[in-house]
Amino acid sequence: QTVVTQEPSLTVSPGGTVTVTCASSTGAVTSGYFPNWIQHKPGQAPRSLIYSTTKNRSWTPARFSGSLLGGKAALTVSGVQPEDEADYYCLLYYGAGRWVFGGGTTLTVL
Amino acid sequence: QVQLVESGGGLVKPGGALRLSCAASGFTFGDYYMSWIRQAPGKGLEWISSTNTGGFNKYYAVSVKGRFTISRDNARNSLFLQMNSLRVEDTGIYYCARLFEDEVEGLRVDQIDFWGQGTLVTVSS
Questions:
Q1: How far away is chain A from the Cα of B39, in angstroms, using its nearest Cα?
Q2: Does the distance separating the beta carbons of A89 and B44 come in below 8 Å?
Q3: Are B49 and B82 in contact (CB under 8 A)?
Q4: Is the C-alpha dihedral spanning A2, B98, A60, A105 positive or negative?
Q5: Mean pLDDT calculated for residue range A22-30
Q6: What value, to the nearest 5°, has the Cα angle with vertex B19 and ends B16 and B22?
Q7: Interchain proximity B50–A97, CB inside 8 Å
Q8: For residue A37, what is the nearest residue in chain B, using CA coordinates?
Q9: What is the pLDDT of residue B105?
Q10: For residue A105, which of A44, A23, A33 has the smallest C-alpha distance?
Q11: What is the three-class DSSP state of B74?
C-alpha cells in the first residue's frame, strides 16, 4: 500500500517562512509524480494551490511556491499571513489514473 | 465562473446504497476529466475515483473498487457516484472536482483545479 507522508503539524510566526514536505513510500518524489498542493480551511471547499510540482494556479498568492527538495515535494510559504492558517495536503500521481493524498499538515500561524 | 454543486448525501444503514450527483456549470463539462474525493470525520482527504471526458475510462481507489461506480452525463453536465454495500468507514464529506490537463516532459496528466463544496454521507445503523 502506497503511503504519502507529510509533517502532521507546523507552527510559524506571521511574516515568517515555512516549508511543508511530502514523501512517498515508493522512493524519491520526482516531477513524474506531478505533485499538487491543496489548502483546506474548516467549513470551506478545498482549494488547489499548486500543480505539476511548481506551477501556481491563477488565484494562488505569489508567497506560495512548490519545489522538489531532497527527494520530496515541498511547499514553501514566504511571508506567512494569518489567513494562511489551514490544513495543507500534497497529492501525488502513481499512474493509471491513480492519485494518493498525503496525510495533511496543519499549519498554525502564531 | 466554474461551479460544482454536489447533492444526494444523507443517512444510510450499513450495506445500503446511495447515489451522489455533481451539477457542473460555467465550463464545457464534456471537455474535462472529473473526480470524487472524500474526507472522513477528523481525517485527511482521500482520492476515490476519476473518469475521463467520455466516461469510458474509470479509475478507483482500492478502498472503493467493486462497490462504487463513477459515471457522467455530458448532455446534462452531471457527474455521479453510485455507492453500494456502504460501510461505516465510508462516512464523510464527498467532494466533486474538475481536472485540468497539464504536460510535463512529454507526460500529460489531468490534475484537480476546481472543487465543489461537498455533500455529507453518514453510514450508521
A1: 11
A2: yes
A3: no
A4: negative
A5: 97
A6: 155
A7: yes
A8: B112
A9: 85
A10: A23
A11: helix
User: And the C-alpha cell for A46?
Assistant: 478545498
Per-position DSSP letters for A11-42, written without gaps between them: EE-TT-EEEEEEEETTB---GGG--EEEEE-T
Q: Does the beta-carbon distance from B112 to A97 stay under 8 Å?
A: no
For residue A50, what is its C-alpha cell? 499548486
Cell 483545479 appears where? B113
Distance from CA of B106 to the nearest CA of A (A): 10
Q: What is the mean pLDDT of chain A?
A: 97
What residues in chain B have per-residue pLDDT under 50? none
CB contact under 8 A, A97 and B107: no
CA angle centred on A33, ends B112 and B36, rounded to 5° = 30
The pLDDT tens digits for A64-102 are 999 999 999 999 999 999 999 999 999 999 998 999 999
Which residues of chain B have a CB within 8 Å of the CB of A102?
44
A84 alpha carbon, distance to own chain's centre: 12
By the 8 A CB rule, do A79 and A102 touch?
A: no
- A-B contacts at Cβ under 8 angstroms: 71
Supply the mean pLDDT for chain B: 96
Q: Does B50 touch chain A (CB under 8 A)?
A: yes
Residue A105 confidence class, pLDDT cut points 50, 70, 90: very high
Nearest to B37 by CA among B15, B78, B70: B70
